[in-house]
Design brief:
The complex is a heterodimer of chains A (220) and B (197). Chain A is of the alpha+beta class. Helix content of chain A is 29%, strand content 15%. Chain A contains eight helices and five strands. A five-stranded antiparallel β-sheet of chain A has the order 4-3-2-1-5. In chain A, helix 1 packs parallel to helix 4. The radius of gyration of chain A is 21 Å and the shape is globular.
Chain lengths: 220, 197
């Protein structure tokens, strides 16, 4: 979706505020949100792409106003109802519905000791790449209303494949639970001038990771 | 519902605990892991090893996952890592314009500035201006490569080994490697400036 989250190249966001000796969390509630998020994911009602899309679906004014963990929490409150973990009444009252069954937590102390999110291996020889390292490619000019990882600033621009990263789940379909559509992801180099015009440095570049479905041959 | 995040989060957590959907002890354990066990010290060990061992550096650049596992960090965590090397004429900078993708296993959770609208919007269109704001002025003839983390690959910058660090041990070298240097908004610390991270 062409949302405010897709902000690469936007102006007006101001200077970068740097905090020295920044703590991992700024308040206890942030750490609880972080951990709740991980624990709830273990119920596997959603996937990472759908998760990201839930945050993109926050109202643009909220997205820009809220802190990072406020966004996570706002999306979490919607998500637990949307995917049926709690009812709207339970969320509003803060109490389980009378007579509702108690389950056993999916995410355990043992799991908390293991780092990593279990993204499937990218090594899958059964999926052939559509592009080769060195080829000139153009990012397709697509404007899907759903989730996509193809930023606006790269659409229609021409670059070069510099590395084949292997095979990954395709976010655009996976976010909508319409299949993993596994395909190759490449590192694509775009010259800064191709993206931003003549004022950009002639030496600089931006590399984006792009799925087969985001690319077309650029000819020569 | 209350508007104070502390109260709202507490309310949701107790509801989820009452329903058996989450175990508060598992939440405590995960928070402890990210507050005390995972952080930039992990990445710094990888960088210091690459500085002292050229063969290790080659493996790190070719297959970051296995090389990161070699220094005792979880292999599954490094599965989709890419390490990009700085040099006298190349400077790498990592961003996620679409959300907040960051190499958690080697750097921990990202700082607020990395997730900010200012950094996300500007890093791709004005990397030199962003670096200047961090106090790093690059010469015109240095090539800036920005890595926008749009997929499940996670990027770690291998900074240049600072001058005057020839006699330092691997452990001492790791003290010069900051989080900021591994994101690409700074260079590694000079030995004289001490080992503050």
């Amino acid at each position: 979706m062409n949302g405010v989250h897709d902000m690469g190249g936007m102006h007006g966001m101001g200077p970068i505020h740097y905090e020295k000796n920044e703590p991992v969390f700024h308040a206890r509630w942030e750490s609880r949100v972080y951990a709740l998020n991980r624990a709830l994911a273990e119920w596997r009602k959603w996937n990472l792409d759908a998760w990201r899309h839930d945050i993109e679906l926050l109202a643009p004014t909220d997205y820009l106003r809220m802190s990072y963990y406020e966004k996570w929490f706002a999306a979490m409150e919607k998500r637990v109802v949307k995917y049926g973990l709690v009812t709207r009444d339970e969320l509003e009252s803060g109490r389980p519905a009378p007579g509702s069954a108690k389950v056993n937590p999916a995410y355990t102390v043992t799991m908390a000791a293991v780092i990593g999110r279990g993204i499937p291996s990218s090594n899958d020889p059964s999926v052939a790449p559509l592009f080769q390292v060195g080829q000139a490619v153009r990012a397709r000019n697509i404007n899907p209303v759903g989730h996509t990882r193809l930023p606006r600033y790269a659409r229609g621009k021409t670059g070069q494949i510099v590395r084949d990263h292997g095979v990954y789940v395709f976010p655009d379909t996976n976010a909508q639970f319409r299949g993993e559509k596994r395909q190759h992801v490449y590192s694509v180099r775009f010259a800064a001038r191709e993206l931003w015009g003549e004022d950009a440095s002639p030496r600089d570049s931006v590399h984006l990771d792009m799925w087969d479905d985001y690319l077309e041959h650029a000819g020569s | 519902m209350p508007s104070d995040p502390t109260l709202r989060v507490k309310a949701l957590e107790s509801l989820l605990v009452e329903k058996g959907l989450v175990d508060p002890a598992a939440l405590d354990a995960l928070i402890d892991t990210y507050e005390h066990k995972i952080g930039p010290r992990n990445g710094a060990r990888v960088v210091a090893r690459a500085w002292v061992d050229p063969a290790y550096k080659m493996r790190l650049l070719a297959d970051a996952a296995s090389a990161i596992a070699e220094v005792g960090l979880a292999s599954s965590a490094g599965e989709h890592m890419v390490v990009v090397e700085n040099g006298p004429k190349v400077h790498n900078l990592v961003v996620c314009t679409l959300c907040s993708c960051y190499p958690w296993p080697v750097l921990g959770l990202p700082p607020v500035w990395y997730k900010s609208t200012a950094y996300r919007s500007r890093a791709v269109i004005d990397p030199r201006g962003v670096l200047r704001e961090f106090g790093l002025e690059l010469a015109e003839d240095v090539e800036v490569r920005v890595w926008d983390s749009t997929a499940e690959l996670r990027y770690l910058v291998l900074p240049e080994r600072p001058a005057g660090s020839e006699k330092l041990s691997e452990t001492e070298l790791a003290e010069l490697v900051t989080r900021d240097a591994m994101v690409g908004v700074a260079k590694a610390l000079a030995p004289a400036s001490g080992g503050k991270a």
